[in-house]
Amino acid sequence: MFAAGFVVASIVAAIAVDAAAIYHERRGVQNGVDLAASAAANNPAAAQSVAYSTLIDAGLMSAGSQAGLTVVTGNYNPDPAVAVESRFVANKSPTNAVRVSFSKPGTLFFANGWAEPPTLDASATATVTPQVAFSVGSWLAKVEGRAINGLLNGLLGTNIELSPADYNGLVSAKVDLFAFLDKLANRLGVSVGTYNDLLAMRADHGQLAMALADLLTGVQRTAMLKLANTAGHNGTLPIGKLLQLGGLGDFDIGTGAANGLFTKISALDLLSASASLSDGKHQVNVGIDLKVPGLLDVTTTVTVGEPPQGGSWYAIGPTNTVVRTAQCVSARRFASDSPCWQSCPSSK
Question: What's this model's pTM, rounded to 2 decimal places?
C-alpha cells in the first residue's frame, strides 16, 4: 500500500510541478511579447526586426529563426464606444500600433515521456500616440523704438517705456512651460491639484508676467517686471484658452518640470497672446510709424478677438489638436505708385 501510494503521490507531484512550470513559462512568454509590442510600436517601419530582437533578448527565440512570430502593423482607435476586439485594424493608416503574436512549445520536466508539450501562445497590441507642442502667432514687421511701446501698451493696456535692450531681452526669453505653470500656481495660491485644474482658473496679465519674471534673470527679468507691475488693465482670461496640455494636463502641479517634459515657450509671445484672449471685443488702434523701405508711411491697426471655442494659442497633443489666432493686422501704406493693402490671417 505504501509503494502504491508513493507512486500515485509521485505522479501527482510531477503533474503539479509541470503545471506550475508551464504556468510560469506562459507568463514569461506573455511578458516578452508585451515588451516586443511596446518596442515595435515606437518604430512601426521596422516592427518585425524590433520585435524579433526583443524576443531574442528575452530568451524566447534564438538567432536565425523567426518561427512562431507574427508582427502586424495597423491603426488603433482608443474610442471607448468601439469594442475592444475591434479597436485594432491591421494594415490601416495612419499606422500607430503594432500587434505581436508568438507561439512556442512549452517545457515538460516529468510528463515529457508520455505527453506532448502544450503550445504556449501570446499576443499583445501596443500603440504610441505621438504628441507635438506648437503655438501660432501673427507677425507684420519688425518694430522698434516708440512702435514697440505703442504696440505692447495697446495690447496689454499698460503705459510703459521699454528700451531696445529690454525688448531684445524679452524677444529672446524662453521658459519651460511646466516651470511657468508651477510659478503661476504659486502666484494664484494653488498648491494641490493637476495642471488641468490650474488651466480651469483665470489670471490677469500681471500675474502671468510675474510668473514669467520668476523664471528670468538679468535684463530679461527687469523688462518682464516692468510689464508685470503695470499689466492687468485689459482684464483676466481663462488660462485654458491660452494653453492646452493634452494628456500631460493630468500631471500633478509641481511634477511637470521634474518629469523632464521638454516644452519651451517664448515669454513675450505668451504674454502678448494673453492680451488677445482677455477681451473678445478688444481692438487696439495703434498709430505706429513703421519705417519700411520704399514706403512713405504705414499706419497699423491691430484687431484682437477671442478665438473660437476649442482652440488655444499653445497646445500639446496628437493629430487634430488645434491652435488658433484671432489677431487681424491691417496696414495702410502710402506711396506714389502702390495701392493700400490689408492682411487678416486666420491660422489653425
Answer: 0.58
Peptide bond into 118 cis (omega under 30): no
Residue 128 Rama label (left phi>0; alpha psi -120 to 50; beta): beta
Domain range annotation of the chain = 2-127, 132-343
Q: Give the residue-averaged pLDDT of 264-292.
A: 62
Percentage with pLDDT > 70 across the chain: 68
Cα separation of 124 and 138, whole Å?
46
CB atoms within 10 A of CB 343: 10
Nearest to 99 by CA among 108, 109, 90, 107: 90
Instruction: Give the Cα separation of 272 and 201 in Å (integer).
Output: 19
68 with 105: CB under 8 angstroms?
Answer: no
The C-alpha cell 518682464 sits at 224
- pLDDT score, position 157: 63
Nearest to 334 by CA among 305, 294, 301: 294
Average pLDDT of the chain is: 76
